[in-house]
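Hey L., structure's done. Input below.
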Amino acid sequence: MRLGIISDTHGLLRPEVFDVFREVDHILHAGDVGPAAILTELAALAPVTAVYGNTDGWDLRAQLPAVASLRLDGFDIVVTHGDQLGSPTPEALNAAFPRAEIIVYGHTHRPLLTTVDVVVTVMNPGGAGPKRFNLPPSVGIMELEPGIPPRARLVPLQEFDPLD
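Output:
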């Protein structure tokens, strides 16, 4: 199973996302979505599991959970924006969700892919929407296969110019 991992769109769904997510089986959105139409557009590609983030309005908060737990291809996955932990770290997320084998979060806009306690994969795909903090927009792709550790990569959506 191939997952598209996205966060912090803040109302901007870049056309590059459609190319990167062209062959995904499921999309995980870790919050700060913007208008609900973003989720509708993503759902045209694959089923979407999404959570709300700290900048999402009451309309999305009424539709989405703060934390989503799901099981895909034998993996226990938690999706959260992470703002409930302040500035979330992989270790703090692992402590907050000790049963998760995969944790997807957003909020910081900083792309990150790491493991905690050897077996927990933690991914922040970075911010896919408007550029913030002089960080390049990015998303993630994760491949799941039962019995094999997840394989994942971060995918920049644009050439990065640190002076831009």
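Residues 4 and 141 are 5 Å apart (CA to CA). The mean pLDDT is 93.

-- N.
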